[in-house]
Structures
1.
Amino acid sequence: MSPPKLLGGAFYLRFAETRPGRCAWWPGASNLRARSAGSATGDQGIFVLRDVFHSIGGAPDWPLFEDVELVRRIKTAGSSCLKDAADRLRRRYIEHGVFRTALLFFLLRFAYWLGVPPQRLKNCSGTHATREDKR
């Protein structure tokens, strides 16, 4: 029997800087959350096969949590996993404070899990970038 085909997934988070300092704990906590919940966020480098992406309706055009919804859709298609590590810069965590940024992400994610629409959460996040600004 051949192993199931990998349709998509994400990478473990790792900061690219050599001196993580105050941020050293965040990748481990993020990876633990991703492993235990079976979900990922955009900073973990989500990947998916093109035909699967189209068959699941792509990523929603939401101001927040489109990445979480995309991973959920990948999982409903049949397969997702976490792979190796993807290096990310820790700029956001340094600029806004590690604890404050982590707490904001946790609270927003919890509210999303409770059913608060992403459009409403965007107003609470302090994030006013549009989808086009992110590109």
2.
Amino acid sequence: MAEYRYDPAEIEPRWQQVWADEGTWEVSNDFSDGQQASYVLVMLPYPSGEPHIGHLKVYSVGDAVAHFHRRTGRRVLNPMGYDAFGLPAENHAIKTGQHPRDSTDIAIAEFRRQFREWGMSIDWTREFGTHEPRYYRWTQWIFLELFKRGLAYQKQAAVNWDPVEETVLANEQVIDGRGERSGALVEVRQLKQWFFRITDYADRLLEDLDTIRWPEHVKTMQRNWIGRSEGAEVVFRCEELGIDYPVFTTRPDTLFGATFFVMAPEHPDVLRLAEGGEHETEVREYVNRALTDDTQLRGDVDKEKTGVPLGRTVTNPVNGEQLPIYVADYVLMEYGTGAIMAVPAHDERDYAFAQAYGLPIRRVIEGPDDELPYSGDGPLVNSAPEFDGLHNRKALEAIVRWLEREGNGHSSVNYRLRDWLISRQRYWGAPIPIIHCPACGAVAVADEDLPVLLPDVEDYKPRGRSPLATAEDWVRTTCPQCGGPAQRETDTMDTFVDSSWYFLRYCDPDNDQAAWDQKIVARWMPVDQYIGGVEHAILHLLYARFFTKALADLGHLPDDVQEPFSALFTQGMILRDGDKMSKNKGNVISPTSIVDRFGADTARAYILFIGPPDQDADWSDSGVEGMNRFLGRLWRNAAEAADELPDHPIPDEINDDDERLLRKTHWAIDKVTSDMSERFNFNTAIAAVMELLNEVTPVKRGDASPGAVRFALSTAASLLFPFAPHVATDAYHLLTGERVWEQPWPDADQAWLERPTFELVCQVNGKVRDRAQAPSDASKDELLALCRQAPRVQAHLDGRDVVKEIVVPGKLVNIVVR
């Protein structure tokens, strides 16, 4: 008997070469065949170093979906790109002197090599990196379109400033209040920054969540981030400086209970208000310290309340009282206007602050007892005569109307969402295409002058300004409007900008006349299935949704493309011994080591079999070996059957083993199809193929005909193809001579799913006492009679009263006795 040896090192490169030579996974934008389009997209990776186990998981999920869609009759777009700008490459350049472009391109080459080695069914003709001028040319064009429509603008904003590095730091670069690299205490500075006006779209971003098929927890995260709330905006005036400070409150009924006024450390006027006062130095130190703290901890009710007086007061518009102003870290800039009226009798945080600093506490809503703070409802007290005695909910509306008449406030809707700050005083990013002219102000670069190329610099380290500022010849230019001397903007764009539209460029990546052709985008968009980590559930997805809506409003997308991603799937993490993998813990699994030892199919299939793909799963070395044995067994059985069993059709007259095998095969088809189409239960789909293989091995197949055996084995390979494409392709080809990816997805014959009989479970008082073969179409009365006739059931019924009889058709009968 021949020896059949499964050798992924031979099988996998052979089929990869076929797919590469023939461009198997490439799709054109010619839709003349009328085939249904399906856009399957995995979030583009950041190319740093080499792919990790998380990349293998998420792209295995995406590839399984893409293969299933192709074989169910759809033209599938499954592209690849790289989120290539950003800090890691720039930090590497600062450390080594290697240009970020060079280190990024090296990383991309490694990603491309491994993705090909994994056998991912990617259309490589559409590949690009966001750092390529052919891409960021259009990123700059989108910026200018938003700028021309007032959706991109500049304003002063508080930033983290590293006094040693002389640069702005992102929040993730601040560790325990110190710069990540320098270790210096971070300070706050007010700098002019570029923003996108995403708040203009807050309501639509909320409302349209109901139109997309996303996990509910992701929708909830987005709703909470947008944070819509209704209330009133009330104006408090600092008479000394002649400045009005609006405050948003959901509780205007408590205005008469305000006894002090608090500003967030990020508020742009905090340092101005403290300037020249006795607390100026203390305020500055407090602000610098507060801005490095975690915002969630700052707002925690139980956190000790701290603050510093600013030496100024504001006027409460409802009673003319002068309220002292404090800066305190429990107030966040992201809520309202970054300033609050403090009502300590009716707010827990305000109460704790007032107690800590000996400030007045005035009750304005009666409650069932004297305990404070009281956040419930009741009649107003200690307010104006016209409001005292009114229930606070009625008084709330009356007070808002009164404020509006007096010109001191109005009803308002507030959002937690803030405009998107996109400025980065860094090198490795897309230059912002703006020219600053002394006479004309901020002027857009002409479309024909795009892209504004990123200049080469000798020093990537910021020194009080963006590294681009050192490229003086590049900075100096002329104004497009007046022709006078001007300077280029030296800030670069946040990398979130690059990843907020890349899915549109994939549709038409070689277009050098436009960012995309609208007719082509209309055929592919929105993305049918988007796949990626839940860590991007808020910002990336929110920004992509904003871009899509804004571009549609500007006439650059079809009107019916209002959302970028119709459906979203978020995958879980791969753990090691219950912990998240990290180099520090020494528990990282390298995809390369698994592929080199067992092959890509084993790595892909195991990572999908390890558990439901939307949940975290713990890695097991023995589990990988088990998957390798399963794939080897499938291939060996296929090779043996192809060589030794005649290629005959299934006979018209089948025996019991044929019937058993055919029923199991169609059951597997039905199970895998359901798991693939209704939900992403890849783990149970693979388990179903394992069950089928167990039935068709020589030990179990019995006297099944060669035709039935070949059919079962080729079907097993066909069903396994989305998860282990190389071995499934080879096994299917050995058995049929056909290419499995060119074959339609198998259909389950319902006739083989219906059994003439089933095993009826017979229970007494909920305990199984016997089993009986019952006709599949038996009535409830017939099932009950069969159960009563079962010998071991009769023994437990003898002489006892029947209280209840429960019949579950097709499954069981339970007789309750006493």
